[in-house]
Amino acid sequence: MTKANIDLIKKLRTETGAGINDIKTALEEAKGDEPKARELLKKSGFARADKKASREIKAGRVFSYVHHSGTVGAMITLGCETDFVAKTDEFQLLGRELAMQAASMKPENKEEFLKQDYIRDPQKTIEVLIKEVVAKTGENCQLLEFKHFKV
C-alpha cells in the first residue's frame, strides 16, 4: 500500500468515522476515486443506520439553545443506546445543532423537523444529519422530542 493510499484512508476515517476495512473496500470498488468512495461509504453507513433504527433507546441527553437576543430558544431530547455514545463529541455536536435548528426554523412537529433542510448545509436534511451520526457512532440515535420558545 502506498503512502498516498494510507493518507487517503486516514482522511476518510477521520471525516466519515467508517471502519478501515469499509474504507479499503469502498476505495477498491471506486478504483481509488475519492468522491466515489465517499459516496459508497455514505450509502453503506445509511444502510447500517436504517438497520439500527429499531434498536432500543436507553440513554441520551437534553440540549438547549438560546439565541443571543434572548427572545428565542429551543430544547430537544436526543436519544441513543448507551451513555458512552451520549458523551461523544459527535453526539454532543448533533444535539447542539438540532437545538439551534429547532430555535431557528420553528418546526410544527417531529416529522416536519426531520424533513427540514439543515441550516448549515441545505444539501442535507435533519434526518440525513442524524443518520450520519448513527453511521459514525454505530448506535441508534433519534430525536425524541423538541420544544420551541419565543418571548
Automatic annotation (TrEMBL):
Domain Translation elongation factor EFTs/EF1B dimerisation: 73-150
GO cellular component, as recorded: cytoplasm
Record flagged with keyword Protein biosynthesis: yes
Cell compartments where the protein resides: Cytoplasm
InterPro entries: EF-Ts_dimer_sf (IPR036402), Transl_elong_EFTs/EF1B (IPR001816), Transl_elong_EFTs/EF1B_dimer (IPR014039), UBA-like_sf (IPR009060)
Gene3D superfamilies named among the record's database cross-references: DNA helicase RuvA subunit, C-terminal domain, Elongation factor Ts, dimerisation domain
One Pfam family this sequence matches: EF_TS
Function: Associates with the EF-Tu.GDP complex and induces the exchange of GDP to GTP. It remains bound to the aminoacyl-tRNA.EF-Tu.GTP complex up to the GTP hydrolysis stage on the ribosome.
Name of the protein described by the UniProt record: Elongation factor Ts
